[in-house]
Write a structure and sequence with these properties.
The complex is a heterodimer of chains A (338) and B (202). By secondary structure, chain A is of the alpha+beta class. Chain A has a single domain, classed as ApbE-like domains (T-fold, Roll), CATH 3.10.520.10. The chains are: A alpha+beta (338), B mainly beta (202).
Chain lengths: 338, 202
């Protein structure tokens, strides 16, 4: 076959195709994912790779929701919760989340407790707090379950209502972001599901924390941090709540007292993985700020706590990654009045 | 969650209006333009105790999850001139992902500039869990250049579109002055509920 002489256009195309391709940013937004909104950002030189990352993330979310959803009567969690005092075979994922929940329950002295759902259910139904709504509190001090991760079984030890919502979403976000990041040709993934954020990749990104007193989309954040292979989760009662004694209260209830979170308007945690950030931000919503800062310091995670009166507390691990507001490294860092 | 006060290159109407403004001043017609406001009557400036909030809820679509439509929210003055772009969200459905370099948050608010020595590029925002499809944007009475606007008549415009779907435009005229005022804008195929509220800042 006779070779045709190369045209000028062909030479240009060949030269172009040998150039390294520039990374591009892709954005995917969905509503009604895990009961909230999803925003996925992917950095890749290839559109096909970005689309595969999107498909991988959504597939992982669907797969894990079938295991961990507290809103489906047929999830593995729901079926397991119907059992009692028996070693039941469970998936590695359910075992991992049950184990992590028990660990955080112990480390936070009960400030994070899946069993708090028993109190929440009573408070919502009664519309007021009294001895009846506080009745489950003693039971919350007993072990909820025993997990044998090697044997792949879990035994439920309590009968009262349980919710993994304060950790499962973060767990799903972290796992799904990791799956998307593993796609060949993808350099960065930033996944935000309803405010729980996980980044995996080569380039740090700036992530804001919504102002609990002005959470509008276009309002300035209260703080901005650098995220690099890290997660940021925030808990607060400013978007969801219920009526208690005629007053609108936070949907987050202190498992130790049976009272809704009152002092903290917004609690954010910066941690390597989103399950940890999710669970701890919930605990820090009901703990005293100095307790939260001490626990965050001991765990090496960052925290930002905004109280109802506007007082803001952060710790060293947070300040190290803070982009704004900047803190003077020589001054007292613990408390900044608004 | 990508919205906000970035310099909207996507807002063609704003760009055109700005071009028109430049053209007017270049051709020496600024004097004529000024003469359209009654001489000697200076309208009071925006009262900073107030804000305008626009609440909107994306209408659920068929299927258990759905792409967020393209939504733009902006404010026009009584002459139909765009004053401030409050949000622009891109539609990512249909022909696949879009190039989003121009879609990052770009805060130019006074506080951020003070704190950080310049505006920060925010890629995402962590918050308490939102209810699906529910968004609020607020207007602080500044135009796209950051200047305080006068009290008076304004129009809030919400544009929503979906590729291979419908195009919807909602508008509401409001007098923004010394008194709170609110209005419901109804619903359409893309926006299930929209409400504007001129209110005292919380």
């Amino acid at each position: 076959m006779r070779r045709l002489p190369t045209t000028r256009l062909e030479r240009v195309i060949r030269r172009w195709s040998r150039r390294p391709r520039r990374a591009r940013h892709f954005l995917f937004c969905y509503e009604h994912v895990l009961g909230t909104s999803l925003e996925l950002q992917v950095t890749s030189a290839y559109e096909g790779a970005a689309q595969r990352a999107e498909a991988e993330a959504l597939a992982e979310i669907d797969r894990l929701a079938l295991i961990l959803s507290g809103w489906s009567s047929t999830s593995e969690l729901a079926l397991w919760l119907a059992t009692y005092d028996a070693d039941v075979p469970v998936s590695a994922e359910l075992a991992e989340v049950l184990h992590a929940s028990a660990t955080w329950r112990a480390r936070t002295g009960g400030a994070f407790d899946p069993g708090a759902q028993a109190v929440v259910d009573r408070l919502r139904a009664a519309g007021r707090d009294d001895d009846a709504t506080r009745a489950p509190l003693p039971a919350l001090r007993e072990p909820l379950w025993r997990v044998d991760r090697v044997g792949g079984t879990a035994r439920r030890l309590a009968r009262h209502a349980v919710s993994l919502d304060a950790i499962a979403k973060g767990y799903i976000v972290a796992r799904s972001a990791a799956r998307a990041r593993a796609v060949e040709g993808v350099t960065d993934v930033l996944l935000n599901v309803g405010g729980d954020v996980q980044h995996y990749g080569e380039h740090a990104v700036a992530a804001g924390v919504a102002d609990p007193f002005a959470p509008a989309e276009n309002a300035p954040p209260v703080a901005v941090v650098r995220l690099e292979n890290a997660a940021l989760a925030t808990s607060g009662g400013y978007r969801r709540g219920f009526l208690l004694n005629g007053q609108r209260v936070s949907h987050i209830v202190d498992p130790r007292t049976g009272r809704p979170a009152e002092r903290i308007a917004s609690a954010s945690v910066l941690a390597p993985d989103c399950a940890t950030a999710d669970a701890l931000s919930t605990a820090f919503s009901v703990m005293a700020p100095d307790e939260s800062v001490a626990l965050a310091d001991s765990l090496g995670v960052g925290c930002l706590l905004v109280e109802r009166d506007g007082t803001v507390s952060t710790n060293a691990a947070w300040n190290d990654r803070a982009v704004a507001p900047r803190h003077d490294s020589t001054s007292q860092r613990e408390s900044h009045a608004r | 969650m990508h919205d906000s006060q970035f310099r909207a290159p996507l807002d063609r109407r704003g760009a055109l209006a700005r071009l028109a403004g430049v053209a007017l001043s270049l051709t020496g017609l600024t004097a004529f333009r000024r003469s359209t406001t009654p001489a000697g009557v200076a309208a009071p400036k925006w009262d900073d105790r107030f804000e305008l909030a626009v609440d909107l809820e994306i209408a659920p679509q068929q299927g258990y999850r759905y792409h967020r439509p393209y939504v733009a929210v902006w404010v026009e003055d009584a002459n139909g001139k765009p004053v401030r772009t409050l949000s622009v969200w891109v539609n990512t459905s249909g022909r696949g992902p879009r190039y989003i370099r121009e879609l990052r948050r770009w805060f130019t608010m006074e506080r951020d500039q003070e704190d950080a020595g310049g505006p920060d590029l925010i890629t995402t925002v962590s918050s308490a869990t939102r209810l699906p499809g529910q968004y609020t944007v607020t207007w602080n009475g500044r135009d796209d250049r950051g200047n305080v606007v006068d009290q008076g008549a304004y129009r809030v415009v919400i544009e929503a579109a979906r590729e291979h779907g419908s195009y919807q435009l909602m508008q509401q005229d409001l007098t923004l002055g010394a008194k709170p005022v609110a209005a419901d804008l109804g619903s359409n195929e893309e926006i299930g509920r929209a409400r504007v509220e001129y209110r005292h800042k919380k």
